[in-house]
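FAQ

Q: What does a record look like?
A: Structure on top, sequence underneath. For example:
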């Protein structure tokens, strides 16, 4: 009975938050209108790189192809002690007026802070060396800075080339993130300024300091710091940036473990953001993140225990009849699943269509051209299991004080 209560709670909570964010999105459709920039300020784009020889060339070319006045933009590559050919490849771009610096390995934050001391832009962005930006993205984002209270603008981040099953799952995950980030923007509740091509006002770093060295998720820390000081963070839904998604289970687990432990660390450091003072962020968005994680973990264990229990019962029952499955199968109506009315199945089906609707909204308003059918089916099948598993591992690392590395 208790397990059933938690399962229904998880489903109802997911539906409630999903419908709430859906209404928030449509209530603010005017916010999707293009923002015409009143001016084109000087922009500095930093590319921190560590052992990115296979992707950095594409990253830099995507920046060189940006549709923005060439005399109003500078590209700065900081090689953070790479041991492969990253620096050599980067230096090939110096003839294209790209600035290239090399330093000893110290982590992404040290590379970004090094660059912050050597740039002249009024606005500053970072593009990870495994990501690629669409040529019109920057110009679309600049218009949001007409509002002086906006301190950062985030793009839509998507998966680049979903060649394997894990990348197809991530493709839908990222598209759901695109939808949610825009909804969070309407609620003044963006709490992550992603590494791939978020654009900031440099004066924020001048006043409040650079990136926090040693922070596992510096993009969360900066966003929460901005929220603490009362600044707004916007999102440009049709400014598209693509990033290479991990293609193996271990690399994906390693990435998520860093993300989730980093999230926990930063939330503890910024626990003052919870409560009435910070409105939707403190009362709804951050608390709901923790509730959804907790319910996902409970649902994971419920499914695991239920599967083991049913498997054991079936083994006992079939052993009595000598594992002769044929009579059993002949007595099972093919359409019994569909004819049996179960409230949980109805809610699950509704959740399926709600999620698909969010993905299709993202596809339309972010101008995504690729197909999503197969990827969404895969996402539905396994993502929730992966999500819960990543969190269980991450909480274990936090509780037992295990060291998390990049």
């Amino acid at each position: 009975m208790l397990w059933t209560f938690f399962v229904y709670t998880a489903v109802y909570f997911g539906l409630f938050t999903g419908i709430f964010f859906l209404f928030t999105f449509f209530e603010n459709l005017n916010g999707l209108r293009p923002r015409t920039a009143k001016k084109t300020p000087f922009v500095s784009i930093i590319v921190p790189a560590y052992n990115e020889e296979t992707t950095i060339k594409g990253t830099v070319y995507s920046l060189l192809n940006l549709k923005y006045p060439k005399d109003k933009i500078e590209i700065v590559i900081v090689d953070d002690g790479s041991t492969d050919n990253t620096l050599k490849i980067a230096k090939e771009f110096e003839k294209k007026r790209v600035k290239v610096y090399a330093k000893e390995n110290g982590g992404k934050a040290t590379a970004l802070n090094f660059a912050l001391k050597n740039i002249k832009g009024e606005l500053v962005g970072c593009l990870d060396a495994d990501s690629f930006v669409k040529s019109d993205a920057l110009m679309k984002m600049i218009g949001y800075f007409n509002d002086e209270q906006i301190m950062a603008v985030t793009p839509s981040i998507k998966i680049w080339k979903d060649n394997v099953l894990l990348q197809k799952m991530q493709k839908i995950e990222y598209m759901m993130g695109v939808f949610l980030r825009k909804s969070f923007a309407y609620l003044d509740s963006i709490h992550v300024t992603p590494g791939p091509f978020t654009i900031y006002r440099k004066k924020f770093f001048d006043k409040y300091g650079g990136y926090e060295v040693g922070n596992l998720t510096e993009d969360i820390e900066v966003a929460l710091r901005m929220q603490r000081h009362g600044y707004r963070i916007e999102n440009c839904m049709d400014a598209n940036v693509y990033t290479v998604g991990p293609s193996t289970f271990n690399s994906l687990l390693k990435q998520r473990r860093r993300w989730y432990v980093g999230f926990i660390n930063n939330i503890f450091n910024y626990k003052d953001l919870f409560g009435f003072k910070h409105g939707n962020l403190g009362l709804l968005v951050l608390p709901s993140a923790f509730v959804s994680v907790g319910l996902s973990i409970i649902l994971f264990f419920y499914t695991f225990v239920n599967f083991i229990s049913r498997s054991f019962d079936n083994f006992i029952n079939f052993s009595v009849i000598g594992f002769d499955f044929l009579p059993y199968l002949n007595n099972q109506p093919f359409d019994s699943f569909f004819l049996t009315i179960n409230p949980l199945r109805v809610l699950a089906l509704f959740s399926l269509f709600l999620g698909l609707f969010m993905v299709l909204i993202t596809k339309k308003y972010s101008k995504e051209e690729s197909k999503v059918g197969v990827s969404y089916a895969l996402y539905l099948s396994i993502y929730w299991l992966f999500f819960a598993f990543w969190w269980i591992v991450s909480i274990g690392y936090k509780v037992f004080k295990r060291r998390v590395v990049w």
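Q: Is there anything notable about this one?
A: The longest strand covers residues 232-243.
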